[in-house]
Amino acid sequence: MSESSQPAAPASKYCRESRVFKTGRVFPNDVNNHQTLFGGKLMSNIDEVASISAMRHCRCNVVTASTDSVDFLSPIRPTDSFCFESFVSWTGRTSIEVFVKVIAENLYSGERTVAATSFLTFVAIGPDGRPAPVPKVVPETDEEKLVSDLAEERSEQRKVRRAASKKLAGQLITTKYWE
């Protein structure tokens, strides 16, 4: 199918259409000196599942524009499995906000807890390499609505934070410190 004959993107999609689940287990090489899961390993998995949700939503390439937050709420230990659940929680014209929830489960007791939450933003990229329009998202469940309710506010906060980051970057030096 040529680019010009591709069907138009739907005007909206449900959160459930972008939902992704991934379950893993903590092994000895995954832990830090506190015997808990390395934060960087968790963050890598968060970005992976979030990017799949974003692509499921827009059905085109995406790039990570920002990791808005990763909140580590409780440690994940070698006796735990961890389950990532992600879905698109909001969209702008070309941007896609994805929510990721990480649930730790003690494999001996069965006790489950929310170990981390995260919001990431992606930009859809069209075949021409430029940002592409994305469908709106429709929350259905109580949890989806809860997460989506403050999305506009998070979007505004991202814009302010990005402007501040650009201002700071413009004032930073790029010369080698030894020169």
Structure overview:
By secondary structure, the protein is an alpha+beta fold. 27% of the residues lie in helices and 35% in strands. The chain has three helices and seven strands, in the order ββαβββββαα. The strands form two sheets. Strands 2-4-5-6-3 form a five-stranded antiparallel sheet. A two-stranded parallel sheet has the order 1-7.
| CATH classification, class level | Alpha Beta
Give the second-level CATH assignment, the architecture: Roll
- Mean pLDDT, to the nearest integer, reads 93
Radius of gyration equals 19 Å
Strand order of the largest sheet: 2-4-5-6-3
Number of helices: 3
Helix content: 25-40%
The number of distinct structural domains comes to 1
Order of helices and strands: EEHEEEEEHH
Q: How much β-strand is present in the residues?
A: 25-35%
- Taking the alpha carbons of the first and last residues, their distance comes to 54 Å
| Structural class by helix and strand composition | alpha+beta
Question: SSE layout and pairings?
Answer:
Layout: E1 12-14, E2 20-25, H1 39-58, E3 61-72, E4 80-91, E5 95-106, E6 112-125, E7 136-138, H2 142-149, H3 151-171
Parallel strand pairs: 1-7
Antiparallel strand pairs: 2-4, 3-6, 4-5, 5-6
Family: Belongs to the acyl coenzyme A hydrolase family.
GO molecular function: long-chain fatty acyl-CoA hydrolase activity
GO cellular component, one term: cytosol
Task: Write a brief structural summary.
The protein is α+β, with helices and mostly antiparallel strands and 179 residues long.
